Fold this protein.
Amino acid sequence: MKTIIEPFKIKSVEAVKTTTRQQREKILKKAYYNPFLIPAEDVLIDLLTDSGTSAMSAKQWAGILDGDESYAGSKSYIRFEQVTKKIFGFKYIMPVHQGRAAERILFTMLTSKIDKDGRFINVGNTKYIPSNNHFDTTRANIEFNGATAMDLVIEQGKHPSKIHPFKGNMDLKKLEKYINKIGAKNIPVCMHTITNNTGGGQPVSMENIKGVSKICKKYKIPFFIDACRFAENAYFIKTREKGYANKSILSICKEMFSYADGCTMSAKKDAFANIGGFIAMNDKNWYTQCKNLLIITEGYETYGGLAGRDMEAIAQGLEEILDESYLQYRIVSTKYLGDRLLKMGVPIIQPPGGHAIYVDAKGLLPHIPVDKFPGQALVAALYIEGGIRAVEIGSVMFGKYDEKGKTIPADMELVRLAIPRRVYTQSHIDYVLEIFESIKKKSKKIKGIKIIEEPKFLRHFTAKFAPAS
Ligand code: F0G
């Protein structure tokens, strides 16, 4: 097979800064051992997120200059609408400033009764929303409205070393059982996250999307897709699912969304944009209600919190992400990091996902108990050892407390190495591998972490930590 190379060349660059171990120890302490509190300038390789961190293409930058900033009906909105309709196929599209704004609008509407004056009265505590795995902001937007977010990923999806081609699939039997238990009328929507970020960037098969859609239709429950990484998901379908090898990425995308009633999307992922998102749907009544919420907090319906130039960059990015040679490079280069980590004995979620490698921190640091957060400890070690920034996806992000204040741990203790699109070269990734080599050698010496201050929602962003004694 031919070597798969980056299907682009670099036109503009940004310097990165190296720091000493001593400096990094100070910086991390000052940031309370929370990677979100480290100044980005002090990070050498930033694998915190693939969100909003993509390198834009020359054509996207050209679009930024060409953006039409008219308040209503801008030319950039019209292009944005055309491209999103072509790929996603829904009747109504509303731009928003990012994915969570789409979630806030959708779930505020779905957890409310609307009174005669059009006001939204919250009835969230009677509502239940299943998914394969809700992402943290999705879950927070559901729970903030008083509703219950339920994860129904297949059993294989919960075990890091289990191999399955579509580990992001939803368990259809569990879904139907859940609907029967809760009652379809209390489930205003069923979500499906493609690819499944919380579960390791794992894809969802077309068959599973179809299956969820069929069950939702049977019980008259609307079905929405969280579409952040839809193109990576489509590439996995093309290469792993029978019958799709000769289909274009665009036709696979169209088919995926044809089974749904709408979607939420963060354009900061598979649209190569630094900001933006949208909600799309077919139901006119829902659209009218969402539009009211949109106008109150995001903006008028043809810009929804974005500048015209942002919509131009998103439209161009959505065209570019459909390029199969880009997607092949993307999936193969992520796998390169995963395969080499495995080879050196670092446990990861297998097989490697689309946008990130998820290290099984509990497997790598078995001496650290879950209430001393092995994931957060590994995040700290990666920064001190090599100036690499990653994020914990485990009991810091998803853990809860029981009535006695004891930690109820998350299903897995992971550290995500998210790979920004078109940003790092293979030698950057080889450097990350070297740092893992040295962490692995001294893994027994790595100590746990404790929380010293935390907010009630989305605590991983702002909580303060210290080394556990
Ligand atoms: N859904 C999924 C699956 C996501 O991964 C994200 C964001 C969102 C919704 C929310 O989108 O950030 O534009 O508001 N994920 C980022 C991450 C933050 O790092 O994985 P947003």
Observations:
- The first helix runs from residue 21 to 30.
